[in-house]
Each structure stands twice: as C-alpha cells, then as structure tokens.
UniProtKB/TrEMBL annotation:
It comes from Oncorhynchus kisutch. Its EC number is 2.7.1.20. This is Adenosine kinase. Keywords: ATP-binding, Kinase, Magnesium, Metal-binding, Nucleotide-binding, Nucleus, Phosphoprotein, Purine salvage, Transferase. Its main location: nucleus. CDD domains: adenosine_kinase. One of its GO terms (biological process) is purine nucleobase metabolic process. One of its GO terms (cellular component) is nucleus. The keyword ATP-binding applies. Binds 3 Mg(2+) ions per subunit. Monomer. Residues 27-340 form the Carbohydrate kinase PfkB domain. It is found in: Nucleus.
Length: 346
C-alpha cells in the first residue's frame, strides 16, 4: 500500500472564491435572481459581489470545481499536507489574498498565476432559507496563461512530480493548450490523467477541444445528465442506457495502451456506473435520509475528491469509488463544499 507524497496529485482549473451569505427576497429581486439557480454573472450582477461581502455573516471558501476536488482529496488524506498541487489564475486584489489564505488553510499547494487585468473570480451563494442562488463571475479564472505560468521551469517541475492529474472540463473553455500539455506528459510517462465532463454545455460547445484531449484520458468522470449529452454529441445510438454510454466512452481512441480507460458516471442517489476491465459495474451509494440533505451542489466535486484520495495511494478502483461515495455523503449534509475537521472513512 502506497501512502500519498507531497505534490503527487495535480489539479488545474478555475479558482473561485466562494462567498456565501444569507440574503432576503429584496436582495434577490434587486439583482433579478431566482431563489434556487446557478448562473454566470452579467454586468448587472457586478456590484452584488461587494454588497454580499458586506453582509454580517459572510463565509469565504476556496472554490471552483477542480480546486474543490483536490481540496477534498487533501482532507481525506489529512497528512502529509500539500499532497495536492493546484494551478489557476487569480487577480492581485483583496479577494485573491483571501483565496490564497483559504487554500493554505486547506493544506493545498496552490500556485496561482496572478495578473492585473481582471479581478479574482468569485462565486456568490445567496442563501434564503433552504435555497441557494449561485452567481459565478469567472473574471481572472479566464485569464490563465500557459506561457506565463505552466511553462515556467519551477511550475512545470511540480507537474513532473505528480502521479495523478485531474482537470474539470470547465477549464477547456479557458486553456485547452495547457490541458493538452499536461495530458500528453501523463500519457508519455504512463501516469494517470483524469477529466470531468463537468456540464452538458462543455460536451456541446467545446466538443472539439474535449475530443483533442480524450485520447489521453485514463479516467473520465461525469454525471448522468452530462453522460447523456456527451453520448448524443458523439452520435452514440443508445443514449438512454448509461452502462452502454460508459462502455462506448471507454472504447474511444486512446494513446497510452498500457492503461485501459476507466469511465465513472454518478447518478445522484442512484447507483454509480463504472467500467472495470471489460465489465460495467454498478456501485450503490450510501443511504441518506432526504431530511439530512442540505445542499447537493458540491456532491460531484466531492465524489471526485474522495476517489482521487485513494487513487493517489494506488488503491483498487472499488476503494476509490467507496471513498468517493463517502465524501459526497459528507458534503451533501452541509451548505457549500465544506467538511468537518477530519474524515471518518474506514
């Protein structure tokens, strides 16, 4: 059994500072927000981020899909610290400083590319009762620059140090060339590169970028909705049979023949579907009382984080999935992608 080492897990994505606060209906109306929604910020929302930061009980967390997953992997592993490295772009501002501090508190080795053009990306969670309206402003996260960050010797050395790589599909909209460079490195060195479908719009509108990376993908993650959209966009016939979609995704062309691709699709409370060797296997998730579910938003990121925490320690796939289910089960009992001090994963 291998224990995790520093910088063994590498993640790259869109770092966002999660800002959550309880607001009232007037606040939602003022910015034209629905009580339960996820949207990208428009011009009319720009002032909202400063306003919500002034609320009395505001909470800050290091967020963004990939950063959430590596943060949870680090939490599951506990020690050593800095098993997870994270690259992404932020601004040179107050929110950027908070984000650095929060990443440090999570013991993630975050190496941000800082630029002055755009402010640090933020995601506001406007909470009313049991509802949360999420408004994301990618801002600086969109400005990641391969030449000015990934290619620098000191940074690339951290890429070389890693054994497992994870990038959410969202980053395909920012720097596909950075993803390709990392994916090719993993493939050439027989290391593990994993990608998440992340959202239906990625498979639809960033198909070309995604399919350039796909031959290097050793592990493909997604949920049932993303899988169905992916299947449709790829022209798979059986788009309503998730096991068949997993099988078809597994058999897409692959460069490194030493590793058979693993496809893992979660389905909320329904069984997780995974390709293991030639078989497609179903894994039941942990039971939870509906009344204990507070917020399912971070469940997908948490599943991946739990999975990666075992993968980086070279545990079998079944154990990775069990850890993914455990982490997701913990996260959905809490608001936002937050967790208790220590995991209780047997």
């Amino acid at each position: 059994m291998t224990t995790a080492s520093e910088n063994a897990l590498f993640g790259m994505g869109n770092p966002l500072l999660d800002i959550s606060a309880v607001v009232d209906k007037d606040f939602l109306d003022k910015y034209g927000l629905k009580p339960n929604d996820q949207i990208l910020a428009e011009d009319k929302h720009k002032a909202m981020f400063d306003e919500i930061a002034k609320k009395s009980k505001v909470e800050y967390h290091a967020g963004g899909s990939t950063q959430n997953s590596v943060k949870i992997a680090q939490w599951m592993i506990q020690t050593p610290h800095k098993v997870a490295t994270f690259f992404g772009c932020i601004g040179t501002d107050h929110f950027g400083e908070i984000l650095k501090q929060k990443a440090e508190e999570a013991h993630v080795d975050a190496r941000y590319y800082q630029q002055t053009q755009e402010p640090t990306g933020t995601c506001a969670a406007c909470i009313t009762g049991d509802n949360r309206s999420l408004v994301a402003n990618l801002a600086a996260a969109n400005c990641y620059n391969k030449e000015k960050h990934l290619d620098l010797d000191g940074n690339w050395e951290l890429v070389e140090k890693a054994k497992v790589y994870y990038i959410a599909g969202f980053f395909l909209t920012v720097s596909p060339e950075s993803i390709l460079k990392v994916a090719k490195h993993a493939s050439e060195n027989n290391k593990i590169f994993s990608l998440n479908l992340s959202a239906p719009f990625i498979s639809q509108f960033f198909k070309e970028a995604m399919m350039k990376v796909m031959p290097y993908v050793d592990i493909l993650f997604g949920n049932e909705t993303e899988a169905a959209t992916f299947a449709k966009e790829q022209g798979f016939e059986e788009t309503d049979d998730i096991a068949e979609i997993a099988r078809r995704a597994q058999s897409l062309p692959k460069v490194n023949k030493k590793r058979q691709r693993v496809v893992v699709f979660t389905q909320g409370k329904d069984d997780t579907v995974a390709t293991i060797g030639e078989k497609v296997t179903m894994f039941s998730v942990l039971d939870i009382d509906q009344n204990d579910i507070v917020d399912t938003n971070g469940a997908g990121d948490a599943f991946v984080g739990g999975f990666l925490s075992e993968l980086v320690q070279e545990r079998p796939l079944e154990e990775c999935i069990r850890a993914g289910h455990y982490a997701a089960n913990v996260i959905i009992r809490r608001a936002g992608c937050t967790f208790p001090e220590k995991p209780d994963f047997p």
